[in-house]
Amino acid sequence: MASEIIELSGHIIDSWTLPRAWDIIMDRGGDFLIQEIQVGKHKSEPSYVRMEIKADDEQTLDLILSELQQLGAMLVNGHDVRTARVEQRGVLPEGFYSTTNLPTQVRLGGQWVDVEHIEMDVAIVIDREHRRAYCKPMHEVEVGDEVVVGHEGIRVQSFERAREREIFAFMQSDVSSEKAKILMIQHIARQMQETRARGGKILFVLGPAVIHTGAGRYVAELIRRGYVQVIFGGNAIVTHDVEAALFGTSLGVDLRTGEQVEGGHRNHLRAINAIRAVGSLEKAVEVGLLREGLIYEAIKHQVPLVLAGSIRDDGPMPGVITDMQEAQRQMRRALPGVEMAIMVASMLHAIATGNLLPATVRTVVVDINPAVVTKLADRGSFQAAGLVTDAELFLRELVEALRHEGAFPDAAGLQAEAGHTQR
Amino acid sequence: MASEIIELSGHIIDSWTLPRAWDIIMDRGGDFLIQEIQVGKHKSEPSYVRMEIKADDEQTLDLILSELQQLGAMLVNGHDVRTARVEQRGVLPEGFYSTTNLPTQVRLGGQWVDVEHIEMDVAIVIDREHRRAYCKPMHEVEVGDEVVVGHEGIRVQSFERAREREIFAFMQSDVSSEKAKILMIQHIARQMQETRARGGKILFVLGPAVIHTGAGRYVAELIRRGYVQVIFGGNAIVTHDVEAALFGTSLGVDLRTGEQVEGGHRNHLRAINAIRAVGSLEKAVEVGLLREGLIYEAIKHQVPLVLAGSIRDDGPMPGVITDMQEAQRQMRRALPGVEMAIMVASMLHAIATGNLLPATVRTVVVDINPAVVTKLADRGSFQAAGLVTDAELFLRELVEALRHEGAFPDAAGLQAEAGHTQR
Amino acid sequence: MASEIIELSGHIIDSWTLPRAWDIIMDRGGDFLIQEIQVGKHKSEPSYVRMEIKADDEQTLDLILSELQQLGAMLVNGHDVRTARVEQRGVLPEGFYSTTNLPTQVRLGGQWVDVEHIEMDVAIVIDREHRRAYCKPMHEVEVGDEVVVGHEGIRVQSFERAREREIFAFMQSDVSSEKAKILMIQHIARQMQETRARGGKILFVLGPAVIHTGAGRYVAELIRRGYVQVIFGGNAIVTHDVEAALFGTSLGVDLRTGEQVEGGHRNHLRAINAIRAVGSLEKAVEVGLLREGLIYEAIKHQVPLVLAGSIRDDGPMPGVITDMQEAQRQMRRALPGVEMAIMVASMLHAIATGNLLPATVRTVVVDINPAVVTKLADRGSFQAAGLVTDAELFLRELVEALRHEGAFPDAAGLQAEAGHTQR
Amino acid sequence: MASEIIELSGHIIDSWTLPRAWDIIMDRGGDFLIQEIQVGKHKSEPSYVRMEIKADDEQTLDLILSELQQLGAMLVNGHDVRTARVEQRGVLPEGFYSTTNLPTQVRLGGQWVDVEHIEMDVAIVIDREHRRAYCKPMHEVEVGDEVVVGHEGIRVQSFERAREREIFAFMQSDVSSEKAKILMIQHIARQMQETRARGGKILFVLGPAVIHTGAGRYVAELIRRGYVQVIFGGNAIVTHDVEAALFGTSLGVDLRTGEQVEGGHRNHLRAINAIRAVGSLEKAVEVGLLREGLIYEAIKHQVPLVLAGSIRDDGPMPGVITDMQEAQRQMRRALPGVEMAIMVASMLHAIATGNLLPATVRTVVVDINPAVVTKLADRGSFQAAGLVTDAELFLRELVEALRHEGAFPDAAGLQAEAGHTQR
């Protein structure tokens, strides 16, 4: 019989932490004995519980503890974090600890140290000399790296659910197209303003439908207005945006009339070929070849673009990273400072981004397919919200909501410049 | 060996009528011999073909002819339409002709007579005395009714595809969320204006998500502006609209804040109960109980509402027709004069309406689920167009597009009155 | 300041009853003071809590209490249930109590009396003379009926989550097509056997795709084997089943070859007309017109069929109920004894059935569209499970799983008789 | 005014080639004058048309001709193919011809030469010395390559629709879950047998849901039976298959019980780490670490696996190609000899494969999401068929259908070995 004593404290009842803990213990076949419980008599009071966890064997207890840890449980007999050395390049030691995307600390020499740039499903490497702990993906570990193993001396900061009622909570409650999206869009607009006001960065992850539907102009507007600090995308969105800028089409469909003007495939290949001929997207802007569109605005306003390729790509467009590990590396490099992520009509790039984001980043997932939204928004965080809605109309209304909030003090009507000019 | 000679004329190449005819003949195991063919040398010239159709037996020939008929084929040796008497109430005679939703004529005494109020899958009854032909559903035929049988003396006016390129054609091309919807919405707005300008009626078929998403206000606006002449819906939309008007909620969700204010189920039952207590929706408006919302505006502006029930209904709300045959009858009665139908976030009522509409009515189907749009828009007509998009944002943009087109000459900004008042 | 003292007991921690209670209180703006709490030290021990609930006003307190009631909360100062008389036919008294689908009791003369045939969203009528309480839908209440109002003297038996791990729980956890369905189908087969072994009835709710996909034969097999006691459906399924039996087609598609044999619409109208001519489905079996198919087997094996119409119906087929309130009445009448409900490829009829079923009936919802499964399976009960899968292959595998479990002791291979005969 | 004379011949009416040609001409604003037309009097006779195509300018004419070419149109005044030299590495010359996936020939020295390994959206390079023409993607062209430009001297072999009615045609007709899938699966099984009988290769493109649903065993069975010659997949499917083989779970869900056994993320990382430790998948089989599953069988039976990575990957597993251009290259290398492609529950890899496959490869796309099937099956070929159905049940029934067809002469019942062993 294996056992361990843990503590949970804070708004553990309000945030369903305690019942989830009980659930885990029983689901995994363990048992618990409450040694002390203090339930906050009022909602403003924190609660506290100390429990002995028991299981038939050490392995089961380990599983239970590793899951409780993600809820913020701490072992009472707190030892330092345990580590092991990497002995083979790109291979983790037995029993390696794999991270969650929640803020995490490790105990080094009796003191808690933050794990830097936390992300999901990676290892924690300890740098004892500088008292640092940071994340490393499996394929980047080097021989000699000191990697965290087991579950002692690790503290995960579970989310406490915000008690004030807020629309993010409402958006999370379930994924359905039958909800009032205007309300949510207005809320997102307000969050964007607050994020920018405190200097936080906003990341957009964009799929090619943004261009096909003619919604690139709204993102361009957001870039001009300072609401986009980083863009993640792929070969398709940049290709179609350049195609739109050079030929007025997206996959051969005229974006002003909606008509198929031509075979279509030729235009996107011609667009790629034209940029390849000048050498880069930046050069194409410089020489005046590329004069409008989302990519043009991003380059003009020095918004970093990380363009990650995939096996379905034609071309590719210069600037698209064809090695996936390099692409992940550049995405990681662009993330510090990002406080809000808006993912629109993207699946591959959105999932990839979701894997890298800490849970503290407010994430909005917009797609017309409820299965995509469910998959993306359901990453175990209170910070991700999903909208099952139309990408084009979402972006249009988002621009409108920001304008209405006074975010564009000098702006004339959007309609005039964007939506209604095609006669 | 059975054979028959038919003619096809008009833009039969342009509209793919001729190849479709060949296709049918061969798919059904028949054969054809071209007796005369004149292909319009230019696109403005009509074409003409006379063919002998052959099949192994009369039954196969009959099948082929009945399908060719729907493409506009005419038998050369044109006899009068054949009929048989109904001998049993609600039962059609053997070999009855079942209609398409295309404009149809029958030959009576050597002359072509229009079939009145054509709709799909019903019988044609002949009134020789008044030289009339009209539709009757199976369950309404009476003993002695003279019903069309076979396929002689029947002429169906096939659609000729409009050559000028138009957005309706584009919208029909395929059902996808990855198309520029603003373009389509602006086109629909223009169609609505043209329809109203020539005195045509516009029918809205609405599902309850219109209310849940807070989009009822946009329909209310369209009613006030004279863009809604008939509404078809069910118990749910009226219940949730009244719930919204009386309690500010839809299924218990506060439409101003997006929060669940209460158990929810109680509010919709309370709404129904309140209207039942005063007796009718009209009375509720009269006594001042119902003072806003889509239903209120419809009653104030004398827009006919046909509310057809279903087995999933609670209540029902007074005014909801619980007998399905009576509901169909009232829907039929409301259709004359309708030239455009806009179906939003509805499946049951939209399919039912689609069954009753002649193919000449321009139909727009809007739903976020592509399967619903495909099912509804694909009714064999060049007049139905589908948008895979968000019902709420569609209606919002439709109002905006109409305003922008100058359809609301006196109107202040919609934002002020509608979308942004909830602070 | 309004307050009331309530008790919760049982596996209230395990079943998340207590945290949900706290959640409700705080979401609704109330407060609570724990007077006594006993947490079961082990998972086998029940827990108990007594709390004082406070709110700013009586109305808020009422809301909180009515929601807590659904979790099984009991007021400590237990009065008898309160009632009011119906004064207007079909209209409930102010403050009426609307039911959940959970087992419910009311206190009459200090004693708890079960509410008979509980279903959702209806009123409870008290018959003091016979000490009975039963459900009545709003439109059926008569002047003088004594209807329950408020929330005193009502006890709702909340579900306690079964602690033994079971596949139903697993199926409920989330709706996804990416789960091992064979496991679930085998589990359902075992549940069906157990249900039949103890004399429980199994209800099938079927949509027309069951016939279109050729899966009618599997349901026919289940009827022959005694695994179907009640069938709910609509005009479409019966029409297409009869079409298949008479003409070998479904919507004109040959079920043996998959080819469109003809215009299609004619066959389904001919099928309806043929049954109308003999008078009824039963008569059609009797005279030898209908000799195979799902409906034939149901009639032969005296399985009650409740066929509820809708406004999209052609015909309708004799036996289809066109009045919705009558249809609901007949559905209610067929439910006693039903312990398991299997809903396949149906939306309208499945929702309607879901509204009438008590939460104690094990419900399985099968549809290829995840949105339908989510909508149907998510009715607040631990007893509903959803499978996002193919209706045809589900039914085929269900028959196979029952056979494999030895449920068809004398059966030769299914393949021979069903799936592989079409050469 | 620009003009050109073209010829079309063969079953151009039957296959709708002629009307599509007229359509293109008129849609693009051109005009035509029929110089000679011979319509086959019977369906077995080929037809012939010679037309003059006119347009306002050369550019429009070019567009029309390039589209007509894809229908098999030939310029009467046939010149040799025109070419231009590549002057910049990875950049195509102005006016480059981009391929379709249809069989294509170019005229060299007056004679028609087949373009080798045709695929879509690439350039054609001419090797005059060896009288060869072959495809090259844009990024692989080298300075000096002689690339085809314009549209002269190119002949595309359009598909003629098979007149015998066949289930592939039926499967293509529309994408719907409401069709009889058993019929289609049996047809696919027969196609697979025929393909193998004539020595053709069968390619499987597989998504991770194949493993999550426990359907890996059916693919393993197909490998053992010789029905899989090439596999394309990604990091996820191989990781989850290895996880299943090593730990019995897929994403942490026990495949025998359907229960979540543990945090889950750890198991897939442990699986990757274990294979990284031994060095490769092949080595893992050799040393006895990997002893069952789809990957094990593929390695044992020497079925080539091309595993293409993506940015969402963890790990990655050894053998997964992280550079996208290298991955495409290896996919291309594995394609020769492939005559049938079966794509199950994959989107990214299926699209990528679709881009590389010639239109002559019979392609079956299986997914439960109709949008995915539509996107993939609709690649302008008569050879792609889509099934909206469950991946797991599809594969299970496919194995069953092959067994029933006698494809596994010695095989005992599948149920015993696969589906029903988990007690």
TrEMBL record, chains A, B, C, D:
GO molecular function, one term: ornithine cyclodeaminase activity
Entries under Pfam families matching the protein: ArgZ-like_C_1st (PF21571), ArgZ-like_C_2nd (PF21570), Saccharop_dh_N (PF04455)
Domain spans labelled LOR/SDH bifunctional enzyme conserved: 4-101
Nucleotide-binding listed as a keyword: yes
Ranges where the Arginine dihydrolase ArgZ/ArgE-like C-terminal second subdomain domain occurs: 187-398
Signal peptide (residue range): none
Protein name: ornithine cyclodeaminase
Organism: Thermogemmatispora aurantia
